[in-house]
Amino acid sequence: MEVHHVTEDAETFTCNAFLALGEVPTLVDVGAMPGVEGVVREHTDSVERVVLTHQHGDHVAELDAVVDAFDPAVYAYAEHPHRTHALADGDTVRIGDETFEAVFTPGHADDHLAFVSDATLFGGDVVVHDDGAFDYGSFGRTDMAGQSRERLIESIETLLERLPDGVEHMYSGHGGVFHGDVRDVVETALSRAEQREPKYPDE
């Protein structure tokens, strides 16, 4: 599956937004980078759907612009004015050329979903590869109102239970893209989260 990181050159704070091309051209999150729809057009004239991992501002700020530009179906766990399809734990959704299972993974956000296929993980902010706090296995912050480290730990455990063997591609909301043994990265993130130490010095 061909995946493009369309917010890679952002000069303002944003999540990673990924364009998956193939049978069903899909944006996984849209980010907060003004002009992201123009970057998408460099790769395709059609976005059939947007799939949201969660609705923090850095993941959805440019949703109005993306909807105006492409009129996609919008899949999300929580309600949103643009949502056309509600997703729940265990639902499946086609992204690019692969079929993904939605895994409910709260802790960082109450409405968080991760998406797993036989080959790929779109991890949102539940687990990331490297994000400035840790290299090779990190996790979403849990120090803000409504967040929970304990719930996040449970979510990573659930994700590991539902992660097929052989997943080799990990695209998460922050940090770098990872290709290799994704299970090992997620297990490393879990072990770090279980230490229950502040992720950032001011946490």
From TrEMBL:
Name of this protein: MBL fold metallo-hydrolase
Source species: Halomarina ordinaria
Residue span, Metallo-beta-lactamase domain: 14-174
Membrane-crossing residue ranges in chain numbering: none
Keyword set includes Transport: no
EC number of this enzyme: 3.-.-.-
Lineage of source species: Archaea, Methanobacteriati, Methanobacteriota, Stenosarchaea group, Halobacteria
Listed GO MF terms: hydrolase activity; metal ion binding
Keywords: Hydrolase, Metal-binding, Zinc
